[in-house]
Amino acid sequence: MSLDPLPIDPSLVPTRQLASGARMPAIGLGTFGSDSVSGETIAEAVLDAGRLGYRHFDCAAVYSNEHLIGPSFKKLIGDGIKREELWITSKLWNNKHAEQDVIPTFHQSLKDLQLDYLDLYLIHWPFPNFHPPGCDVNFHDPNAKPYIHENFMRTWRQLEKLVDEGLVRHIGTSNMTIPKLELVLRDARIRPACNEMELHPHFQQPALFDYVREQGIEAIGYCPLGSPGRPERDRTPEDTSPTEDPVILAIAKAHDVHPAEICLKWAVQRGQTPIPFSAKRRNYLANLRAVVEDPLTPAEMEAIQKLDRNCRLIKGQVFCWKDNQSWEDLWDVNGVITPA
Ligand SMILES: NC(=O)c1ccc[n+]([C@@H]2O[C@H](COP(=O)([O-])OP(=O)(O)OC[C@H]3O[C@@H](n4cnc5c(N)ncnc54)[C@H](OP(=O)(O)O)[C@@H]3O)[C@@H](O)[C@H]2O)c1
Question: Are 190 and 160 in contact (CB under 8 A)?
Answer without folding.
Answer: yes
